[in-house]
């Protein structure tokens, strides 16, 4: 055990505000005079969950299994490069950028600067500056690897079948309609599978429930996507850091992280449109952030799909090396500003915790 106090900073900018008084204390200043924020009372919430024992777990939740299955525009994968900044920057979550990444929060000191004041005087002017600079210097190289895969479910498993763009060259022969609605090639042999956890409470949901079960006799479709902002941003931010331009470094790094998320949301909207779900999208961007659409995006590492080892399987399916994205031994995508996800078209497919 160590004596002392643990302080938590929600982001790098708040960390800077905490570090300055701590450094002053380390140099002999009176802790009461350096402006350290007061410690918050620790609160422990009482758990009211009823957990189902493993031997009593259902094989499937009450999610409906008779919803219409959309026809994808193609089976397999495609690579799209050189996506214009103007196309996906409109999906940028400004609040997450300004508050979460740039630390624009009203001062605890009560100096009268509201969040909206900070947005108008600091946030949006800096955002315009960085977007202009990103465009002028070609800092981002937005690319996407995505695809549609035939897939039934078996219990907690999502089974991906062989398909027309399968690099193994193995094709099935029965049961799957052609993307154009014709009578062409079909696939019925297993290629690989994902195993997802099931809730031990509530509705006992599992991601596999959002896919038609194999016994239904109808093959479902699951979309995967992997987006990247490119490798150049790492070079630019490393240069800013080496030049001790820490605020510029944190601003650009935080913004490009959010622009990568914006790229993911932009392409997510394209996938929904290609699956014929676009008419169910909200009119306002705020509705997008509130998930008021059909066809939810589930990223690896989230509660419903926590197994990061599955990234090997995602990379095998999408082959993002064709656009310069590789997977490290630590299961991290490189370039760093890259993210991957599943898209499930099921109308009940919403976020849940396992």
From TrEMBL:
Q: Does the keyword Transferase apply?
A: yes
Span of the signal peptide: none
- Which InterPro entries does the record match to this protein? Met_Synthase/Corrinoid, VitB12-dep_Met_synth_activ_dom, VitB12-dep_Met_synth_activ_sf
Q: Which residues are in the AdoMet activation domain?
A: 47-354
Q: Which SUPFAM superfamilies match?
A: Methionine synthase activation domain-like (SSF56507)
Q: Report whether Transferase shows up as a keyword of the record.
A: yes
Q: Which UniProt keywords apply?
A: Cobalt, Metal-binding, Methyltransferase, Transferase
Protein name per the record: AdoMet activation domain-containing protein
């Amino acid at each position: 055990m160590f004596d002392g106090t643990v302080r938590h900073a929600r982001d790098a900018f708040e960390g800077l505000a905490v570090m300055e008084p701590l450094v002053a204390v380390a140099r002999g200043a009176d802790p009461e005079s350096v402006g350290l924020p007061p410690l918050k009372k620790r609160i422990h919430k009482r758990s009211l969950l009823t957990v189902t024992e493993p031997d009593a777990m259902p094989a499937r939740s009450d999610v409906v299994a008779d919803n219409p299955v959309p026809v994808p525009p193609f089976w397999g994968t495609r690579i799209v490069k050189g996506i214009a900044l103007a196309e996906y920057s409109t999906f940028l979550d400004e609040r997450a950028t300004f508050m979460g990444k740039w630390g624009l929060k009203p001062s605890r000191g009560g100096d009268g600067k509201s969040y909206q004041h900070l947005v108008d005087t600091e946030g949006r002017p800096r955002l315009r500056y960085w977007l202009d600079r990103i465009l002028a210097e070609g800092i981002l190289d937005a690319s996407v690897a995505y695809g549609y895969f035939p897939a039934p479910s078996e219990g907690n498993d999502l089974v991906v079948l062989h398909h027309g763009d399968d690099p193994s060259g193995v094709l099935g022969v029965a049961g799957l309609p052609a993307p154009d609605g014709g009578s062409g090639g079909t696939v019925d042999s297993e290629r690989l599978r994902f195993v997802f956890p099931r809730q031990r409470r509530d509705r006992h949901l599992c991601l596999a429930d959002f896919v038609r079960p194999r016994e239904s006799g109808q093959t479902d479709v699951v979309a995967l996507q992997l987006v990247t902002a490119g490798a150049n941003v790492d070079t630019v931010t490393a240069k800013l850091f080496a030049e001790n331009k820490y605020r510029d470094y944190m601003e650009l790094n935080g913004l490009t992280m959010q622009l990568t998320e914006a790229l993911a949301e932009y392409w997510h909207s394209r996938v929904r449109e290609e699956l014929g779900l676009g008419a169910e999208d909200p009119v306002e961007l705020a509705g997008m952030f509130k998930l008021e659409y059909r066809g939810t995006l589930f990223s690896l590492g989230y509660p419903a799909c926590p197994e990061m080892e599955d990234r090997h399987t995602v990379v095998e399916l999408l082959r993002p090396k064709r656009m310069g994205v590789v997977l490290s031994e630590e299961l991290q995508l490189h370039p760093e500003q890259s993210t991957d996800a599943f898209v499930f078209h099921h109308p009940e497919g919403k976020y849940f915790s396992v």
